[in-house]
Amino acid sequence: MTIQTPIDAIEADPAPRRATVGVDVGGVLVGGGAPVVVQSMTNTDTADIDATVAQVAALSKAGSEIVRITVDRDESAAAVPKVRERLERLGMNVPLVGDFHYIGHKLLADHPACAEALAKYRINPGNVGFRDKRDKQFSDIVEMAIRYDKPVRIGVNWGSLDQELLTRLMDANNASPKPRSARAVTREAIIQSALLSAALAEEIGLPKTKIILSAKVSQVQDLIAVYRDLSRRTDHALHLGLTEAGMGSKGIVASSAAMGILLQDGIGDTIRVSLTPEPGGDRTKEVQVAQELLQTMGFRQFIPVVAACPGCGRTTSTVFQELAEKIQNDIRVNMPVWREKYPGVEALNVAVMGCIVNGPGESKHADIGISLPGTGETPAAPVFVDGKKSVTLRGPNIAAEFQAMVADYIERRFGQGRSAAE
Ligand code: SF4
Questions:
Q1: Which is the closest atom of ligand 1 to the Cα of 315?
Q2: Residue 183 has pLDDT above 90, yes or no
Q3: Is the pLDDT of residue 69 over 80?
Q4: The IspG C-terminal domain covers which part of the protein (predicted)?
Q5: Which of 135, 162, 180, 197 has the most C-beta neighbours closer than 10 Å?
Q6: pTM for this structure?
């Protein structure tokens, strides 16, 4: 029996990226066809210069291409140029974005060195001021952006949505013969808040090449609906993020599900994964997750991939789990150096497999892979290099020997004296 496969059924590519207007954020292009940019945000008090410099440096080293910092009061605004300067001295020119709420217009006016040091200003139209003050204070920040030649992100967040706009839309909805759900009206208010604010900024004189929009909500389905709609209604560059995503696996899954679907639709020019760290936890986790999301979906390559089987009853020893973890950790720790020393190393694929069922097959697909012996199998681990069996490792030092082989492979393939075959 033959099975006919319709050609459409085997297409596996994402939708083409939506065309957006590119925005230069301190030398990093967002939108305009540029690769999706990874960004993150500090959780230090910006006035604590040592802590902020250390965290920005860690985020940048982990791969964050833009870092946002809180600018909430005079002390933090005064610290911004010092943070910038200290980073420069460390050789780090990662663009810094100032996150402003309520008094951004005043802080930027009172601290010109802060306005200059920042690469972008983030404005939340929902809390830039209220009633008659709102447009004035919003305009002041936009004028400051024009004066200092900086882009802005108009970042709407449904936790701080413009209540006057929402009330107006709710009232109109209630009076309509076919009212929509309150949730749908709220989504519309979020989108309108972003679009109306962008229109106002452009009217004041800030060009579209200086405006990025975001419209963050905390529910996956709402985020997908909001951004699909927003991207149909504007060609502004879009910043994606699920707000209040949460801690641990919940935050990772929710952010990946929401942003994965949007990226697959071609929507999104920069992403931030808003994870709540464990107390004292590592802030760089959000950068790692953002990179892994983009890499697993095939949009960008940041770091070598380690394919490991999940393990099952055929391999009750922990050797392969330990080896997969060691290789993964080795790669992550060494990556900042490897990036410079071994150009192209991020394309490397390593496989660590638990038994003969899928081990040799998966290992052959990797650049270098090992198939460890499962329960009851001969204690031998064939290693495959570039699809061909290279050696069979035996004895108690299999893990260390394989690690050495991976290091050697990287040196040969990506090092200065890379083999002639490359
Ligand atoms: S490769 Fe072997 S050990 Fe790993 S999941 Fe498959 S059957 Fe189980």
A1: 3
A2: yes
A3: yes
A4: 306-406
A5: 197
A6: 0.90
Give me the domains of the chain, ranges plus CATH numbers: 23-297 (3.20.20.20), 305-413 (3.30.413.10)
Look-up of token digits 């008090």: 45
Q: How far apart are CA 3 and CA 10, in angstroms?
A: 13
Q: Which residues contact 1 (CB under 8 A, 6 or more apart)?
A: none
CA torsion 17-19-20-23 (nearest 10°) is 80
Arithmetic mean of pLDDT, 72-96: 97
Q: Which ligand 1 atom minimizes the distance to the CA of 362? A: 1
What distance in Å separates the CA atoms of residue 13 and residue 264, rounded to the nearest whole number? 8
pLDDT (tens digit, 9 = 90+) per residue, 310-357? 888 888 777 778 888 888 888 888 888 888 899 999 999 999 998 888
Q: Helix, strand, coil proportions of the chain in percent (round to 5)?
A: 45, 15, 35
Pocket of ligand 1 (CB under 6 A): 309-312, 314-315, 353-355, 357-359, 374
Ligand 1 center to 327 CA (angstroms): 18
Q: Is the pLDDT of residue 8 over 70?
A: no
Residue nearest to atom 2 of ligand 1 (CA): 355
Nearest to 198 by CA among 270, 133, 125, 268: 125
Tokens of 98: 């100032």
As a whole number, mean pLDDT of residues 117-145 equals 87
Q: Return binding residues for [4Fe-4S] cluster.
A: 309, 312, 355, 362
Residue 393 gets which letter from DSSP? E
| Ligand 1 centroid distance, CA of 118 (Å) | 51
Length of the chain: 422
> Residue 58's pLDDT is what?
95
26 is written with which tokens? Answer: 């301190």
Closest CA to 58 of 307, 324, 282: 282
Give the helix ranges, DSSP H, for 129-233.
132-148, 163-175, 182-204, 220-233
What's the pLDDT tens digit per position in 286-296?
A: 999 999 999 99
Please give the distance, rounded to the nearest whole angstrom, from the Cα atom of residue 324 to the centre of ligand 1.
Answer: 13
How close is the Cα of 354 to the center of ligand 1, in Å?
Answer: 5
The rounded Å distance from CA 99 to ligand 1 centre is: 47
Neighbours of 164 (CB within 10 A): 13
Look at ligand 1, atom 7, and give the residue with the nearest C-alpha: 357
Residue 304 structure tokens: 């070598």
Provide the pairing of β-strand 23-25 with 28-30: antiparallel
Q: Which pairing describes strands 237-240 and 246-247: parallel, antiparallel, or unpaired?
A: unpaired
Question: Which run of H or of E encompasses 337?
Answer: helix 319-341
